[in-house]
Each structure stands twice: as structure tokens, then as C-alpha cells.
Amino acid sequence: MTTEADRIADPWGERTPYDRGTPWPARTDRHLAPGLTEADVERWVQTASVLHSNGDAMDIAVRHGRVVGVRGRAGDRVNRGRLGPKDLYGWQANNSPDRLTRPLVRRNGRLVPSDWDTAMDRIVSRTRHLLDERGPGSIGFYTSGQLFLEEYYTLAVLARAGIGTNHLDGNTRLCTSTAAEALKESFGCDGQPGSYEDIDHADALALFGHNMAETQTVLWARVLDRLAGGDPPALVCVDPRTTPVARRATVHLAPRPGTNVALMNALLHEIIRRGWTDPSYIDAHTVGYAELAARVERCTPRWASRICDVPAPGIERAAEILGTAERLTSTVLQGFYQSHQATAAAVQVNNLHLIRGMLGRPGRGLLQMNGQPSAENTRECGADGNLPGFRNWQNDEQVAQLAEVWNVTPDRIPHYAPPTHAMQMFRYAEQGTLRMLWISGTNPAVSLPELARIRSILGQERLFVVVQDLFETETAQLADVVLPAATWGEKTGTLTNADRTVHLSDKAVDPPGEARPDLDIFLDFAARMDFRDKDGGPLIGWHDPESAFAAWQRCSAGRPCDYTGLSYERLHGGTGIQWPCTAGAPDGTSRLYTDGFPFAHPDTCESYGKDLVTGAPDEPVEYRSLNPDGKAVVKAAEYLPPHEDVSPDFPLQLITGRTVHHFHTRTKTGRAPELNAAAPDVWAEMSGAEAAALGLHAGDLVEVGTRRGAVRARLRITPMRDGVVFVPFHYGYWDTPAGHRPAADGAGRAANEGTITDWDPVSKQPLFKTCAARVTPVEPGTGTERHRTAHTARTARSAR
Ligand SMILES: Nc1nc2c(c(=O)[nH]1)N[C@H]1C(S)=C(S)[C@@H](COP(=O)(O)OP(=O)(O)OC[C@H]3O[C@@H](n4cnc5c(=O)[nH]c(N)nc54)[C@H](O)[C@@H]3O)O[C@H]1N2
Ligand SMILES: Nc1nc2c(c(=O)[nH]1)N[C@H]1C(S)=C(S)[C@@H](COP(=O)(O)OP(=O)(O)OC[C@H]3O[C@@H](n4cnc5c(=O)[nH]c(N)nc54)[C@H](O)[C@@H]3O)O[C@H]1N2
Ligand SMILES: [Mo]
């Protein structure tokens, strides 16, 4: 079946029901520019989605050297041909007339068009000057979860061994550093245990703080198809809002934001009390169970019901589903990762799977999800706070191994302290020790918390800011040099999705004007800086995507993310392949931990663990005595109240997140007419009871204010907990009249005007989902706005 339906009204498309344990049927989705048919397409070029972490495989349609549409790849293991709304329409951003086509440099306070030599000279001379005057610690790199593996790896080598700075992180810090950290805490190492195929086999699915229906629409279609087929799974949803996931749930728990640990402890309490654990699995494969059992002993459902404001019988019912399932698959995402006690909460989901022996078998799946298309690569390549190949900065042997791969002495690779996290880099810039920040593929002037602060940091005279992007974003407007980048469809590289599936994305068309692939920009910089290895050869010996991939393969050898069995050739034509892929496992590996936890061993682990309350790293000796044989670590955590709780002045909890039609700061989806029309401006959501209590109506213009800033938005009434206000975080100001820029009083339309500068102590991920707020009326809505809100709610309902 090939479908070209209106995927704005129905994001998930037609059902293809299937029974438990059978393969998910194919359905090929396609969208071409108006008036074109497949006969008009000159070439189809293979790629995968870059607008979420699902890794939906597709072909780009090319005509007259331009992208004119997309079609899902039915043979791919991830999506079996399906595509979501952002993928069907988002490609139009490639052709946007306002793409950056030339480098820009700041002259007399203004960004003016320039050329590559001038722009790169400015960067290189500033870099050399800072290295001479202040040393490598004055230079930082802030990258993305949206470039390709080859680009991150190159950046990691040039930053860590070339410049010699410890200040390299990705926006993955805002996204899934908690996923990585939770996996390290429990299994000694990052790396996704489960596989999407677990959904085909599960008899129970649990989604923890994950609105999969809107954020991974194709994976949700897979769940909907299971729900429509024979022997459907039970579904547990944990989310304060009545999301489309919640509407389909067998049990929906809507906890007070920030209380996930209390809820998880009560679920674990019930499972232990009712005897639903797997004692032989616990004995054979874990350490730390006794401490967990003691920790949750008094965490009854009644106890949690008071903290989470969830009825105790609901918790008991959910515990029964989780506790009695034969094949439990869980997913975790931002409702945990960006909320209070993020890592501690995510680790409790790992504990649930460990004490029930729910790992390493079909349907026994655990997915500490990713968000961005190539976040996995940022992490494995060490372009965030890890060393490449999931190597442990505290383990000298692993650092020495990396030094050998790079042919440098170990002291060239900074490892005297944990790699600097993004929030700390911005702090260093604020304090003035960081003097140059090179930002690639991310838009922090919209996506970081407390935007007034971020704008003032990036706007400082003394900080030299380089921005590498497709568009003149809010962040680019604050830069000293702007480099025009090529993007998806205009360059070749690989990307790895949330279930470890590696896809090749081929170049389909030329980039506009002088825009260049990020890889070429990083290689050009490395060449101009003339970085050398210890024998005087070039530090970076590769010159194109395929040779960069080969270099990465050598670095990954023997590590959990082993790519040595892959090649561009193998990734061509067929389906994506899951790492580890080696000579011994040439077709990849569907599940990790089918037989123990090899990377939890003290010699091989990526991390010795951290204190779940303070985040202080444990010492190697502590870890070795806790876990001498390398088993999974069951790590208990105590519930603690949120840092910023409600008060009489700020009586509501603000949570921020996503809507199905937009991706992040909308630089791509805001330029696709169908997606923009579906959600053109920011709004705020509240429950009917909460709005009534404040005397507000749907359609009213309100101000959602916190101690730091405010957003003005039209109000929508949607089902969710009372006491909560939700604002999508997608809206910056690039597409609004100048008057819409944040006003002098800070009121804008970016949710992050109001969010708090605070992060999880363990993963250092910012807490975008828990702060105190108030909602005040600005101007009553008109009749049509009230009607529009009602209509939107109706569409969402009928689309279930
Ligand atoms: N349409 C769309 N899809 C996307 C993206 C996008 O921008 N748009 N971005 C991609 C990326 S990078 C990411 S990271 C993912 C994110 O995907 P998700 O995590 O699914 O999306 P969010 O909306 O950020 O948050 C999920 C849910 O967390 C709930 N929540 C808030 N606070 C709490 C809490 O304290 N406890 C619990 N249990 N739940 C809470 C919110 O109500 C929300 O429904 O989506 C990816 N896919
Ligand atoms: N309040 C609140 N804030 C949040 C979140 C939230 O839920 N609430 N979620 C957080 C999360 S999970 C995430 S992932 C972040 C996302 O935050 P950002 O990363 O800031 O958001 P994007 O809009 O995806 O920015 C990516 C930028 O890269 C550019 N780009 C795209 N492709 C390429 C390429 O190939 N090369 C180059 N050089 N540039 C490219 C795009 O034009 C865009 O400007 O936001 C975080 N911020
Ligand atoms: Mo993300």
C-alpha cells in the first residue's frame, strides 16, 4: 500500500493491524511537491529522518537538482515505509529562499556577507591568539544531535586532541544526557539495551514521560497497529497531561510534575511486596538489590499518592501490569529526563527491568530513548561529555587506548576532570574564562533555559561566537562569524537512531550558494590549524565522509558501539543495521545484555557511577568493591522535593515540551507551509477547572510568568492535571515582526524566557519541565479564537 493522505489532520495514517509475535506490515508513505507524480522524479536518494530520533528510512525525490519530495523505505526495519508529518513536509526547508549562502562576519557591529577565507581566517587567528594568551581552556565547542557521525568524530578529535580543550558538549545535554547517564549507572555503559522489535512481542508497554504519539509518530503507529491486532499489549502511560498516549492507555497515571521518583519507588514497592520479582535473575546478574528493597519498603502507593497526587488504586493497577507482564517493554523520555531528579527516576525504570529480569529477550525491552536524529552519534563519538567510544575519562588505560588510536601522547587528551557540560560552558563564558564558543547545529538563544541570561552571555563583546547553521537564527544574530552549512540531503554521512540502527544518508543535491558540509568546515579548520600527531603527521588524516567513517570504525573497535562490521556499501540499498556490528555479528545486534553485562566490569566500564543525589563521581576503588564481577547495578534513590516549588505568587507548575507539527526552534518545520499553518504561533494549555478558577477562557491572551521571564500566548483548554500550565517551546522570533522580539519586560513567545537555570546533578540536563509560574490575563479572546481552540481539541480527539 502507498499512501499520500493528509498527515496534518491524521499524523499516524491508516492502521495495518498485526498480531503479537508477527512482523509489522509495510506501508509506504509519500509526499511530493504539488502537481508532481513519481514519473516526474529523476532520482531517489536514500536517507533517514533528521527530525526526531526514530530513524525513519526514506528516499529523497530529486528533480532539476532540487529536493521535491520524500518516500518511506518499505524494506527498512525501523519504519517499514512509514513517515510522519514532519518528514513528509519538512524537506521544503532545504529549498527555503532565506538559506544562508555566504559566510557572514561582524563589522562595525553588523553582520555582513563575506567569503570563506576571511571568515576562517578570523576564526583561526582568534583561536591562535587565545591559545597563546589564555590556553585551550578559553575555547569551547557546543554542537548538536543533528549532524552526522563523521562530523562529530572529526570535531571530537580536533577539539580534544587538537585544541586540547575539555569544553566540548552537544545540545544532547538538553536532550538525552540523562538517558546516557541512567544507562551508565545501571549497566556501566551507555548503549540502548532494547530494540524496536520488542514492541512486536510485548504483552505490556509502559511509556514514562514520553509522548510518543507526537514525538515519534511512526513508532506510535507501530503501537497503534499492535493495539488494533490480536493479543494487544496493555499500555501504561505516566504523564501529567492527557496526551494521545494517555487516551489509549489501560492505566494513565498523571503525577504532579517532578515527583517521578516517588511514583517509581511506589511501583517498585508493590512489585517487591507482591512477589513479582525474578530472584534468580537478580542473583545471577545484579548487585544492590537489598538496598533497593530496603529503600522502597515504606514507599507504599498511599505514601506516593500524597506526593504525586495520583490515586493509590491507580498505582496498584499499574504495578500489577508491570509486575505480571511476561514481556514488558518500557520507554523513557523527557517527562523524566527534563524533570526533577531526572537520572534517579530514569534509573528506577532500569531497576524495574532488572528486578523482573526483563532484558535481552524479545519483548523484554528497555528503551532509554533518544530525541534527536543523531544524538546517539554525538554520545558515542565523544562530541559531548564522554570520551569517544564510550571511554572512561577516569580510566588511564582507556585514555591511553584512545591516545594510541589518535597517535598522540595521553596527556594531549584532557581528562583531569569530567568533560565540561554545556550549562557550565555558558557559566564560564558568563564569568569570562571562556572567550570563544563555536556553536554548530543548535540554537541556544531559543533552546536554553532563562533566555535573557543566554542572550546577554552570547552578546558579550569579550566572547567570540561562531555559529554554523543553515539560517540566520536567533543565535546567529548574536555571532561574530556565521558559517553557512549544508544539511541533510546536501551531504553524505551516517546517523544512528534510538535503537542503535545505523543509516546512511546520501547526498542528493548541491547545497545552496557557498554553503558547505559541516565535515568540510571542521576539516578546513583542522588543516588551517595544522594539528599534528606525535610523529608529526596530520592529526586528522581523513578527507571525506567515507574516510572519516573508517577512522571512527578503528576508534570504536572493541567498544560497545563497535562499527567494524559496517561499511557504506553494506548500508546502501537495504535496511539500516544495529550496532554492535562486527565480524562475529555481521548483521548487527538486535538486543544488548542477552547474556550478562560485559561493559559493567570495572576494567571496561564507561563510568564508575555517581551519587544519585549530589552527582559526585564515585572512585574506581569504590566501584570495584561494589561490582567486582561486572554485573548490572541496582541503584536506589530517595524522593526529594523539587528545588523551585509553587508559592502564593507562583502557584502553578510550568511544563514545556512539544507538539506534533514542529521540531524544536522551527528553523525547518516553520518553513514548511503545511506544518507552519498547523501551528503558527505559541499557545498555553490548562485544564478546564484550572482556567475556570482563574476566570480564564479558551482563546484569551494570557501571560505565563515565572521569576525569570514571561511568555504571552493564547490559552487552550485541554485535559491535564489541575495546577499545571503547558507551553510548547518551539517559538523563537525569527518569523515574527520585530515587535515580537522579547519586550523590555522580557515577555516574548519562547517558553524558555521563563524556565530556570537548574539541572539534574547527575546528568547535568537542564530541568525544562519543573518550575513555578503564574498565569495572568492580558486580553480576552475573540469568538473565532475560542472556536479555533475548540476545533483543534476536536481534531486531536478524532485523530485517535
Ligand atoms: N513533533 C516533534 N517530535 C520530536 C521533537 C520535536 O521537537 N517535535 N523533538 C525530538 C526530540 S529532540 C526529543 S528529545 C523528543 C522528546 O519527546 P518527548 O519526551 O515525548 O516530548 P516532550 O513533549 O518534551 O515531553 C514528554 C512529556 O513529558 C510530560 N511531562 C512533563 N513533566 C513531567 C513529569 O514531571 N513527569 C512525567 N512523568 N511526565 C512529565 C509532558 O506532559 C510531555 O507530554 O522528541 C523528538 N521528536
Ligand atoms: N523549554 C524547553 N526547552 C528545551 C526543550 C524542552 O522540552 N523545553 N527540549 C530540549 C531538547 S530535548 C532539545 S534536543 C533542544 C533542541 O534545541 P536546538 O538544538 O537549539 O534546536 P533546533 O531548532 O533543532 O536547532 C538546531 C539548529 O541546527 C540547524 N541545523 C539543522 N541541520 C543542520 C546541519 O546539518 N548543519 C548545521 N550546521 N546546522 C544544522 C538548524 O537550522 C537549527 O538552527 O531543545 C531543548 N530545549
Ligand atoms: Mo531532544
Which features characterize this protein?
alpha/beta; 800 residues; 4 domains; binds molybdenum atom; 29 strands; globular; seven-stranded mixed sheet; oxidoreductase activity; 28 helices; binds ligand MGD; metal-binding; disordered C terminus; Rossmann fold; Dimethylsulfoxide Reductase, domain 2
Beta content comes to: 15-25%
Give a short account of the largest sheet: 7 strands, mixed
Radius of gyration: 25 Å
- Using the coordinates above, name the CATH class of the largest domain: Alpha Beta
What does the model show?
- The chain is of the alpha/beta class and 800 residues long.
- The chain folds into four domains: 2-95, no CATH class; 104-175 and 374-552, Rossmann fold (3-Layer(aba) Sandwich), CATH 3.40.50; 177-369 and 628-633, Dimethylsulfoxide Reductase, domain 2, CATH 3.40.228.10; 652-799, Barwin-like endoglucanases (Beta Barrel).
- It is 31% helix and 17% strand.
- It has 28 helices and 29 strands.
- The chain has a seven-stranded mixed β-sheet with strand order 7-6-18-17-16-8-9, with helices on both faces.
- Strand 19 (493-496) and strand 20 (501-505) form a beta hairpin.
- Helix 3 packs parallel to helix 22.
- The longest helix is centred in the N-terminal third of the chain and has 18 residues, at 116-133.
- The radius of gyration is 25 Å and the shape is globular.
- The two termini are 21 Å apart.
- Molybdenum atom (MO) binds next to loops.
- Molybdenum atom is lined by residues 175, 371-372.
- Residues 1-25, 777-800 are annotated as: Disordered.
- It comes from Streptomyces lucensis JCM 4490.
- It holds the Pfam family Molydop_binding.
- This is Nitrate reductase catalytic subunit.
- InterPro entries: Asp_de-COase-like_dom_sf, CT_Nitrate-R-NapA-like, MoPterin_dinucl-bd_dom, Mopterin_OxRdtase, Mopterin_OxRdtase_4Fe-4S_dom, Mopterin_OxRdtase_prok_CS, Prok_molybdopt-oxidoreductase.
